Prior knowledge:
The chain is of the alpha+beta class. The protein is 58% helix and 10% strand. A four-stranded antiparallel sheet has the order 1-2-3-4.
Amino acid sequence: MARKRRLTGEAALNAAYGRSDHAPLLEAWGVELSDDILRLALTHRSFSNENGNLPNNERLEFLGDAVLGLSVAEQLYREFPERSESDISKMRAGVVNMYALAEVARELGMGPYILLGRGEMRTGGDDKHSILADTVEAILGAIYLEHGFASARETVLRIFATRITNAPSVGLTMDWKTVLLQKLSELKIAEQPAYTSEETGPAHAPTFEAVLRVGERYRAMGTGKNKKEAEHAAAKAMVNALNADSSSASHREPGAGASQGS
């Protein structure tokens, strides 16, 4: 008996998209989108590349990133008039960084709907921070194209309402942690920072030492008078190392303040 021929191209795209009922996803977002643009917004480049270089969601992601950034920036400007430009910049970073967007995607149950290539599917691509974050932006780009900026902005403010309200406690208190999240997002490094710390010295004047790891490759250390201060110092060291390293085409040695993980 002849083996069934694998679908490719548009046939593969339509078949993969048709396996899911997208009504729950649209209900979670609180929007209506045509199948054509929703299908495009959910098509990751790995699926596209495996099926004849079909159009993927990266152009929509580009639009959605702009819609998201402007909508959150304007709302922070209006909601926190007493904050400086430096403050609201950090607050925005705490709201729209890759990890925050990935959390939004998980809350909306987006992972199973994303159309991925076989390689990404095998490695858990439907739960990778970068893929989830990019798809959130692609959906926002789709909403903008079909319904205009006002509708896209309303969607952003509704879905990100709690994060925007909590932005002072997230963005400002995180400080170098937020800057690190921004840098990791910029460099498309999907691993999440992991902090461990321990207390040394006498009880009346302890010193805290923090170790920060990003995946298997990057490691940085920091010290401080308390755990929070030590973690911020480690995050600052990591940012400085990544800044020094980012001029290189590949992340070989992180540089001063960071080293390859052991």
